[in-house]
Amino acid sequence: MPTEPRVDERPRAATVPETYQETLRRLRAAQKPAGRGAPAYSVYVNRRLGRFIAAAAYRAGLTPNQVTAISATLTFAAVLLLALVPPTFWLGLAVTVLLAAGYAFDSADGQLARLRGGGSAAGEWLDHVVDAIKSSTLHAAVLITAYRFLVPTDQRTWLLVPLGFMAVAAVSFSVFLLNDLLKAARAGRDTTSVIRTGSTPLRSLAGAPTDYGVLVFVFLLLGAPAAFAVVYTLLFAAHLGYLLLALPKWFRDMRALDPAA
């Protein structure tokens, strides 16, 4: 008669869960290089904060899209506060903390995707859509609060500054994304495989005025409207100057991708 299959009665080795520090080390090893000229706060502060968040999110079982949703919630809460609440020091502190936290979670979603074995096209799309909305609505909120609370009637020409900043942010984001897409298309790769050459500390510091992380901390000056207006205007000038200087260089880079050139 057929015999019943025997059960292996040998004790099985217990599966030891990965510790938080081990997750961090694994994530650090999978970290992709920073973009060429990536500004200092984004490289040396925000990316590290994102790594801590990504490791915690991984252990909590969160998905990259859920982390992106948290980033969007924090960021757009700050945008709404900025547009609707009269500016004070405490409002500036709240806006800064929310924007900085949202930026850290924005860095964490991609790192979490790498921990989980790679991202998806839908996840990358969602991340870029949130970034695109953020890049314009933040300056729209500055425009609204300046009109409602900060700028006297006889100085309304200053409102052109956040309006211009909104345009520069939208154009810059679109061009950065388009550069990667065209390079990936010519190389026959997906966009997630466009690996940047590493940034140097000197190049990162030179790009500090165009760093989103620097812009975030300008909102600490909301309680001092004159100082806020001056620093915000200087940052706008830096972003505009960087874009005008970079556009010809990027155009040459695109021409170099075309064999017919």
Automatic annotation (TrEMBL):
<dbReference type="InterPro" id="IPR043130">
    <property type="entry name" value="CDP-OH_PTrfase_TM_dom"/>
</dbReference>
<protein>
    <submittedName>
        <fullName>CDP-alcohol phosphatidyltransferase-like enzyme</fullName>
    </submittedName>
</protein>
<feature type="transmembrane region" description="Helical">
    <location>
        <begin position="158"/>
        <end position="178"/>
    </location>
</feature>
<keyword id="KW-0812">Transmembrane</keyword>
<dbReference type="GO" id="GO:0016020">
    <property type="term" value="C:membrane"/>
</dbReference>
<dbReference type="Pfam" id="PF01066">
    <property type="entry name" value="CDP-OH_P_transf"/>
</dbReference>
<keyword id="KW-1133">Transmembrane helix</keyword>
<dbReference type="InterPro" id="IPR000462">
    <property type="entry name" value="CDP-OH_P_trans"/>
</dbReference>
<dbReference type="InterPro" id="IPR048254">
    <property type="entry name" value="CDP_ALCOHOL_P_TRANSF_CS"/>
</dbReference>
<feature type="transmembrane region" description="Helical">
    <location>
        <begin position="212"/>
        <end position="245"/>
    </location>
</feature>
<keyword id="KW-0472">Membrane</keyword>
<keyword id="KW-0808">Transferase</keyword>
<dbReference type="GO" id="GO:0016780">
    <property type="term" value="F:phosphotransferase activity, for other substituted phosphate groups"/>
</dbReference>
<feature type="transmembrane region" description="Helical">
    <location>
        <begin position="89"/>
        <end position="106"/>
    </location>
</feature>
<comment type="similarity">
    <text>Belongs to the CDP-alcohol phosphatidyltransferase class-I family.</text>
</comment>
<dbReference type="GO" id="GO:0008654">
    <property type="term" value="P:phospholipid biosynthetic process"/>
</dbReference>
